[in-house]
Amino acid sequence: MVNSFIKSRTVMRYLAILSLVALLCSCNAKTKTDEQVKLTPIMEKALFDKQSRFYANFEQFPAERKLLPIGVFDSGTGGLTVLEVMLSLDKMDNITGELVSDGIPDFSGENFQFLGDMANMPYGNYAAEHKEDFFQELVVKDALFLLGDKYYKNPMDKAPEGEKEKVKILVIACNTATAWGLDDIQTMLDQSGTGIKVIGVINAGVNALYSNLIKSNTTESTVGVLATKGTISSNAYERTIRELQPEKKYEGTINVVNHACAGFAESVDQEKDFVNVSLTAPRADYRGPKMGTGDDDIKRELLPVYNFSYADNAILYTKEGDNYTAFQLNSAANYARFHLVTLLEKHRKSGNTVPMKNIILGCTHYPFLLDTLVKAVEELRAYEVNGKHIYNELLAEDLEFIDPALFTAIECYQALRADKNLALRTVDGKVDAYISVPAYGLAPGCTDEAGNLTYDFKYGREYGTEDMTTVFVPISRRYVSKENLNRLEALVPYSYGAISKMME
C-alpha cells in the first residue's frame, strides 16, 4: 500500500513536471505546434532547419537596432513609390510624434534597403497559374533576404559572399505580396522572437479610404479598386474594407467595384511580354489585353472611350478594311486608359447608381501613371453619347485616387517610434538597392535570349525545394532598362538619386 502510494505520488509529480515543461515550452518564441501556428516549408526552414540555405538564425539578430536600415521590397521598381514618400515625408513632429509637420524629414538620418524581385515578376500571375504556394514562398524569401546579412556580388558566384546589414523593420511595398504573404511573414517573425514588425500596403490603403470618407462626411459611396489579378483574386482589399469598418466606427455604406488589371504593372516595368517599344507590328508572344478575351477584352465599340494614343507605336495593330485582325497595347499609358474604362464599365453595368468617390491604386506601379489616369477621368466626364454624359454621373465631383504609399510610410514611422527604434540622426541616410536575377547555370530552356526566366519556367516551379533559381545582387544599369531608369528619374527623383549612386 505504501509502495502504491509512493508510486502514485511519483507519477503525479512526473505528470506535474511534464505539464510545467509543456507550459514553459508554450511560452517559447519558437514553438511549432499545430495548435498554435501553421508553418509552411520555407518558414520551417528559416526557423528550425540549420542545414537549410534558408535558415535565418534569428537568435543572432542584433539587440540594438536604431541604426539598422529600414527594409522595403516589391516585385519590381514600383515599390520605389513607397520609398519615395519615405525619403521626402514630413508629416510628423519628430519630438512629440504628433501628426503635424515640423520642417524636418520624418525619416531623417535613416538608412534603407530596397529589394526589387524583378526576375520573378509579375507577381500577379502566380495566382492565375495556380502557383499560390510557390508565390507565398517567394514573398517569404524576399523578407528573409532583407532580414539576413548576405548577398550575391555576382550571379555567377556559387555562394552569397557580399555582406550587408540586417533590417530593423519590413515594409511590403507590393499589394499582391501583402495579400498573399503578409500573414506568413508576420507568423514567422512572431515565432522568431525578434520583435521585428512588418507593414503592408493594403491596410494602409484602406486606412486612407476611411480617412477620406470620414473627413468628407460621406454616408454612401462607391470605391473602385484597380489591382493585379493576384491581389483581386485574394479579395484582400474588399475583405479589409469590411473588417476595418467597425474599428473605424464608420456607419455608412461602401460599394466596392474590383478590377484585375492584366499587364498594367508589367507595362510600367517594360516587361517584354506586355510592352516592347522596339516593335512596329503585332507579335505572337504578346500577353496583354486583346479583343475578344473576356475580362481583358478590348471592345471595338469602346475605342472612342479608351481614347488610346497611337503615336510612337503605342498601339500595334493590323486591319482588313475597317476590321482589326490584331490589336495590342504597347504603352503603359494605354494600359492605364484601358483598365480605368473597364472599371467604370463594370460600375455602369452593376446597376449601382452611387458615384465612384475613390479609386484605390492597389499596385505600387500604378501611381507612375497617375497623371494619365486623372486626365482620362476628365475626358470621361466630358464624353457624350446622344447628348448624354454617360460617365460623368458615375464619377463623384470630388473623386480622389488613393495611393497607399503615404499611409504606409506613416504607419512605418509610428511603429518605429513606438519601439524606440527611430535613428533620428542629423546626417544624411543612404539607400542600398538590390534586385533578383536568374541564377547562373540554369538548364537550357529556363531563360530566354535576353537572359530572363521564360514564362513557362517561371510559373512552373514547385515550392518547398532548396533550389536557387534566382539570386539577389546589387542593382546595376546592366539589369534595368534605359526607359525604366528615365521614368524613375522623372517620377521618383529622391529614390532615383539614392539608387543611382550605386550604379555609377
Please outline what is shown here.
38% of the residues lie in helices and 16% in strands. The chain is of the alpha/beta class. The chain folds into 2 domains: 259 residues, Rossmann fold; 201 residues, Rossmann fold (3-Layer(aba) Sandwich).
Commentary on this structure:
The chain has 504 residues and is α/β, with parallel strands linked by helices. The chain folds into two domains: 41-201 and 406-503, 3-Layer(aba) Sandwich (Rossmann fold), CATH 3.40.50.1860; 204-404, Rossmann fold. The chain is built from 17 helices and 14 strands. Strand 9 and strand 10 (323-329) form a beta hairpin.
Point out poorly predicted stretches: 1-35
- Side-by-side strand order of the widest sheet: 6-5-1-2-13-14
Strand content: 15-25%
CATH class of the largest domain: Alpha Beta
Tally of structural domains: 2
Compute the separation of the termini in Å.
87 Å
| Biggest sheet features | 6 strands, mixed
Provide the residue-averaged pLDDT. Answer: 90
Total beta strands: 14
Radius of gyration: 25 Å
**Inertia-based shape:** globular
State the CATH topology of the largest domain: Rossmann fold
- Tally of alpha and pi helices: 17
- Provide the structure class: alpha/beta
Per CATH, the architecture of the largest domain is 3-Layer(aba) Sandwich
